[in-house]
Amino acid sequence: MRNLLLKTAQLTFLIAALFAFLGTDQDARFQTLGHKVMCVCSCNQVLLECNHVGCTYSDRMRGELASYVDRGDSDDLTLQAFVQKYGPTVLIAPTTTGFNRVAWVMPYLVLVLGLTTVVLIVRTWRTRPLAIPAGVIGRANNAELERYREQARKDTQV
Amino acid sequence: MSQIGSFALLLALMLSAYSFLAGLVALVRKGPAAERLGETARRAGIATFAMVFLAALVLVIAAFQDDFSIAYIFHHSNRDLPGAYKFATLWSGQEGSLLFWSLLLATYGLVLRLRYKTDSRLFAHASVIIAAVQVFFLMLLNFAAHPFALMQGTLPQDGNGLNPLLQYPEMVIHPPMLYLGYVGFTVPFAFALAALIMRYPGEKWIQITRRWSMVTWGFLTCGVFLGAHWAYSVLGWGGYWGWDPVENASLMPWLTGTAFLHSVMMQEKRGMLKTWNMWLIFSTFLLSIFGTFLTRSGVVSSVHAFAQSSIGDWFVGFLAVTFAVCLFFYVKNRSHLRSEHKLESLVSRESSFLFNNLLLLVACFTVLWGTLFPVLSEWVQGNKVTVGPPFFNRVNVPVALLLLLLTAVGPLLAWRKTSIESLKRNFLWPALGALAIGAVLIVVGIRPWKDMSYLYSLMTIMLSALVGLTVISEFIRGGRVIKGHTGQSLFGSMVQLAHRNTRRYGGYIVHFGVIVIMIGFAGAAFNQDKEQEMGYGDKMSLGAYTLVCRSYTQEDKPNYSSEWAIIDVFKGGKQIDTLYPERRFYKASQQTSTMVANRSTFKEDLYLVYEGLNQDTGRPILKVHLNPLVMWIWVGVWIMIAGTVVALIPNAVPVRVTAPARIQTAPVGAGD
């Protein structure tokens, strides 16, 4: 009898813990997914941050999101359902498929290209003397420029 | 009244067109006649200011007189609008804001034309370029977006009123600051293009425009952050930056302008990056115009849909022509822009500026790319996509961290070449300090391995500490040298140090402001919020705070009616404050607006939003945000402004530089 009570208590605890865990997980998923979707009431806000009481869109969309999460739909499936119903602009950021991938790749590509260019420029500057066309920076101008630079040095150095 | 305004605008257009054409002819021809013609062009430019000022004055008076026969006043004002907002009507709509832009440009032009003796030839070129820009805006005002257009049919008794989102004290100052920044970049742009056209020797145009650039950059900084503060206080979503296209439009010229302020030092000190600097300032100006285009054309969807129309084509045309002119003169005169020195080492101040510029421009490109990608997507795929905060944050946060690292390391590097030993010596203690701060933060509970945002937050604070410590060590090191020579106190020596080299130490103070802002941004990773219906006596807990609803009520005022709650705030069982979150309904425009109640401390903001009444229960719904460290952002902005002001103060021992015969004699800094 005592064993039975103990086992029942253990089982109850396990179920409660499981529910609590699942509940937390579902809340977290609701929050995460709710921040991947825009409210479509033209407020340009994340679904869970749309603060219009009585906003017919956000209330309905939150309800839909909750039902998808409760039903156990995967993240992809949930987002796809929103896209099908409200169009691709409902997603807060471009997907990583098709042409949308370009959106994500381009900034990094520019960074890499920029870094490569800077490194190449630095290497070129270090290895090749600069050809300054005669007449552009003559002797007189050099003296004048040196005065400006001296002023700049004084402005920016101790 | 409207006829006076219309006539003033037309006259302004004629005067600026004359200023442009006569100025151009005077520059092409030689001799006393050309000089006299140039002088008339200069005076026409000055008179343009008078006419544009008159037009703006007429519009403001019309707003105060509730002259609803003018369509612009009908659409953007109403009888019960408070006086300050009636004044702000000038920049509340498209036509008015274009007039305001034109007025600021005319004012900048006036200052420039009055100081023409600094270098009459260079100033005459710059004056013509500014006149050309002015012609564009005045053409818009006269033919596409006329602020004095009249209402048709029966005159309305009252106006539509100002957009409720704009009825907030900061909106009286935010747009002028932003516009002062946008428009101000026209001046360094004009001087840069003038110097390129003239094949002007040396860096004098940079010397002349240095202060223009810094003041303009300072205004733009104020404008951007006032906008962030306005969004935080009015939009009621608990954030201050939403990567909205129009916010992005203000950030882009700020980024390129910041890059310019840094890289220009390489040209001044080493005669390097001349082409780069030229294009940076061209880009900054073009991005300023592009920002206005984004705000006004409606090409991308934005919460700033205050004033949209079909004037986008005009801006596209102007951008194209400006770019073509810049490119033409660059190709024609590029030989003039060759570097005079080469970079000698990767571990040098020069290379740190190169990488700093690269990162700032990558950030700018990312913002531009993300802003325009929806348009590109529609063009390529046939459907728009949304590019929201996750995109911008994912790309720009790492870039910002790298920039912080450079901000720490850069000032420790010497020009030309730095030995690794010297870098180690200067960098060791700040680096150890930053690591110690990181360790303390982990001990007190930041777990960077749990979430990427925590990792970014920790790195931001550590790198900010690194920058802060290097700035402090620079002040102390320099102060000690002066103390050794003068026997003053260390603090007095540091003040003298800053006064001797205001530009350098003002720059350090700006850097210090930047890190304070970055620490404020880092707090966003720990934001919390909660939403609850709050009846009489209902409680809500968030963080260390307990909120109790004492009451809620409604009020009717001439301009709006409002609902608001009275919320007592408790902490540790003790009442510490009472907050009044409010929601207003503006009668004239039939729109609602949120008045957030915010209890702001250095540690965190307790931010209450009155969302509205539950129609079923009749009780208010409140959303409460607990946003750590937000106040640091606004404090950081003040520090940045203070640093900019310090950088503008002339050095304690001014040095006069005389130019050779070809360039007129002038004190350095004159005209800037």
Structural features, described:
The complex is a heterodimer of chains A (158) and B (672). Chain A has 158 residues and is mainly alpha-helical. Chain A folds into 2 domains: 2-90; 100-156, no CATH class. Chain A is built from 5 helices and no strands. The longest helix of chain A is centred in the first third of the chain and has 33 residues, at 2-34. Chain A is elongated, with a radius of gyration of 31 Å. Mean pLDDT of chain A is 74; it is low at 18-23 and 133-140. Chain B has 672 residues and is α+β, with helices and mostly antiparallel strands. Chain B has 4 domains: 1-162, no CATH class; 164-340 and 352-396, no CATH class; 397-512 and 641-648, no CATH class; 526-630. Chain B has helices at 2-28, 32-64, 71-76, 83-88, 94-114, 120-144, 169-184, 186-198, 204-235, 245-270, 274-297, 312-333, 349-381, 389-409, 420-444, 452-486, 490-500, 502-522, 630-648, and strands at 528-533, 539-542, 545-556, 560-571, 574-579, 582-586, 591-595, 597-600, 604-613, 620-628. In chain B, the strands form 2 sheets. In chain B, strands 2, 3, 4, 5, 6 and 7 form a 6-stranded antiparallel sheet that branches. A 4-stranded antiparallel sheet of chain B has the order 1-10-9-8, with no helix packed on it. In chain B, helix 10 runs antiparallel to helix 11 (274-297) and helix 14 (389-409) runs parallel beside helix 16. The radius of gyration of chain B is 27 Å and the shape is globular. Chain B starts with a helix and ends in a 24-residue tail after the last helix. At the A-B interface, helix 4 and helix 5 of A face helix 10, helix 13, helix 14, helix 18 and strand 9 of B.
